[in-house]
Amino acid sequence: MRALQSVLAEKGYIDPAALDVLIDTYETKIGPRNGAQVVARAWTDPVFRKWLFEDATAAIASLGYSGRQGEHMVALENTASRHNMVVCTLCSCYPWPVLGLPPTWYKSAPYRARAVRDPRGVLADFGVTLPASTEIRVWDSTAEVRYLVIPQRPAGTESYTERQLANCVTRDSMIGTGLARIPDALP
Q1: Which of 29, 87, 79, 39 is nearest to 59 (CA)?
Q2: 168 counts as catalytic
């Protein structure tokens, strides 16, 4: 990737600084923040939550997050008894409008294969240990449908604002390879 970027920059086809800004925007500002807003709204607004689980594409679009790779969305709810995890076994179908650029590991063959046959092992690799009684359900994204995991709301966040709740949500928690967390400092 870097070699291609260097060649294109040398020929004047791209501005490396502009490309870095674009990548940073998708990795840290647009996607994961959008998905975190969707989750925080679902945690605080029962009407939105119901709509999200009935028609995720429309509910997400109502917040202004739609577009290519964001069509045909399905929201999955993590609970104490069920944990959902998303993979795309054939390629790397991923909901860009709500999660930004897919992480490298999401597209890797080892993750794609192992998530299906050993989801507890994959979760352990990500530092997530769930009780043996928790059912783990793995969902396979396709070009026709993409998934957004709605993680469990962290305990002790009852007084948090929607903005503070959004800061508890990580990209990995919306894929199901992580859990929502309470950050050390909230804005």
Answers
A1: 39
A2: no
pLDDT tens column, 9-52: 787 777 888 777 777 766 655 668 999 999 999 999 999 999 99
Query: What are the E-state strand segments in the chain?
Result: 73-77, 82-87, 135-140, 146-150
Main-chain phi, psi angles of 147, to 5 degrees: -115, 150
Please say if 93 is a catalytic residue. Answer: yes
pLDDT digits 0-9 by tens, 93-126: 888 788 988 899 999 999 999 999 999 999 999 9
Q: Return the closest-CA partner of residue 135 out of 77, 49, 180.
A: 77
Q: Which of 93, 141, 168, 173 does the annotation list as catalytic? A: 93
Catalytic site includes residue 88: yes
Which listed residue (62, 66, 91, 141) is catalytic? 91
- Candidate list 66, 88, 141, 168, residue with the active-site label: 88
